[in-house]
Specification:
The protein is an alpha+beta fold and 398 residues long. 30% of the residues lie in helices and 19% in strands. It has a single domain, classed as Beta-lactamase, CATH 3.40.710.10. Helix 4 (70-84) packs antiparallel against helix 5 (120-130), helix 5 crosses helix 6 (133-143) and helix 5 (120-130) runs parallel beside helix 10.
């Protein structure tokens, strides 16, 4: 028999036991828009996972998902390659992105790749290793806005809206337009071509206005900031999207991504690798430390992380919102759990002022909540010890 269900308010009770770390969070939960999902994982005698979710204040309040949207885009890009199903077209095939409109970028080389060829594989590695925005934009263009929205809806995420590129200032109309792109073999022969795409379908107005003001071209505007045409993916959806790759059998068939076993191994490897464990791209460990994209359990901690702990995740930080969606394992102590959390770190309510409370509120919260659940998992009794071998990789540089 599996362990009895925990109380519904388990997370709150656990945090209350550590007032030095969480009293301010609990007292200001609405202002911080704190949302947490802890997924307890128990294995049966055949090592099959049984997952139970516990929520803290996950009322689907809007938060800006920032770079967490890169995770489903990476999954969809590999899925699209499988649906193209043309010999020679795969994640390592050269992908040239054309410029189909004045605001678009033409991409024919990628300096961080082993041979400077832009590929889906290299873009995905950059997304998970350092959360590269340009890599995301190229995959967004490869997929097209309409495909992204339709595929997420078909997989059971009708509220997930990924509608714009990142770190580039484009209008709603410009984000509907995506570049033509083509795959080429090593001799320069075109293997597949996709014309420029345009999403002529309706896009929702989220009617989300937050804060007290925002800066626009250096001028403070004393009005709430408009997120109505921004991306939106709820924490529960992000959790289930990650879960669909970590534990595909735990979600309905229609919610899974069409990935090969090789695709899944590739994703698991690079979701859990550190920047220093990549040769191509190669990263300076001073600028990109182990926990650079591992907020839960480590916050902004510098230096090397323990070898026995691996985190398969995607983080996001923008507009004062800090988010991490993760599957965490300890291969030495044989524990595993999923944890997703988001918090708003913008105490003055002003957007675009670069005065966010990441260091004083966000990173400490992420570290503390991760460590809190990790310590709980260390003491939790399990009927069956999990076999984690499928999540253990050789992280020699490659």
């Amino acid at each position: 028999m599996m362990q009895n269900m925990l109380p519904v308010n388990f997370l709150e009770t656990l945090m209350q036991q550590h007032p030095d770390q969480f009293s301010a969070i609990l007292q200001n939960r609405q202002a911080y828009n704190v949302q947490i999902i802890y997924t307890q994982i128990n294995r049966d005698k055949n090592n099959q996972p049984i997952l139970t979710e516990y929520h803290f204040y996950t009322s689907n309040n809007y938060f800006y998902p920032a770079s967490t949207v890169k995770m489903p885009i990476a999954f969809l890009a590999l899925e699209k390659l499988n649906e193209i199903n043309i010999s020679g077209v795969n994640a390592n095939t050269t992908l040239i992105t054309d410029s189909s409109a004045p605001q678009q970028s033409f991409v024919f080389t990628q300096p961080t790749a082993i041979d400077s060829r832009p590929t889906i594989a290299n873009y995905i590695k950059q997304i998970f290793l350092i959360s590269d925005n340009d890599a995301f934009n190229r995959l967004y263009e490869f997929l097209g806005q309409k495909t992204i929205l339709n595929q997420l809806k078909q997989k059971g995420y009708p509220n997930a809206i990924i509608r714009h590129r990142l770190q580039v200032s484009l209008t709603d109309e410009q984000n509907r337009q995506t570049n033509a792109c083509s795959f080429y073999d090593t001799s320069g022969k075109q293997l597949w071509h996709q014309p420029a795409q345009y999403n002529d379908g309706p896009l929702p107005n989220l009617n989300v206005f937050l804060g007290n003001g925002y800066y626009n071209n250096g001028t403070l505007v004393h009005q709430p900031f408009n997120f109505s045409e921004k991306n939106r993916v709820y924490l529960e959806d992000l959790t289930h999207i990650l879960r669909s790759v970590i534990f595909p059998e735990s979600v309905p068939p229609q919610s899974r991504f069409n990935l090969t076993a090789t695709d899944r191994q590739f994703l698991l490897h690079w979701m859990s690798a550190y920047p220093r464990e990549s040769n191509y791209p190669n990263y300076d460990t001073i600028a990109y430390w182990d926990a650079y994209c591992k907020f839960l359990m480590y916050g902004s901690q510098k230096g090397s992380l323990p070898k026995n702990i691996r985190i398969f995740n995607k983080v996001g930080d923008a507009y004062g919102f800090l988010t991490d969606v993760a599957y965490i394992i300890d291969t030495q102590n044989k524990i595993e759990f999923m944890l997703s959390a988001t918090i708003s770190c913008n105490s003055d309510g002003i957007y675009n002022d670069d005065q966010y409370d990441y260091d004083s509120i966000g990173y400490p919260f992420m570290k503390n909540i991760g460590q809190l659940l990790y310590q709980y998992e260390l003491t939790r009794k399990r009927t069956y010890v999990p076999d984690l071998s499928e999540f253990i990789f050789d992280y020699q540089k490659q």
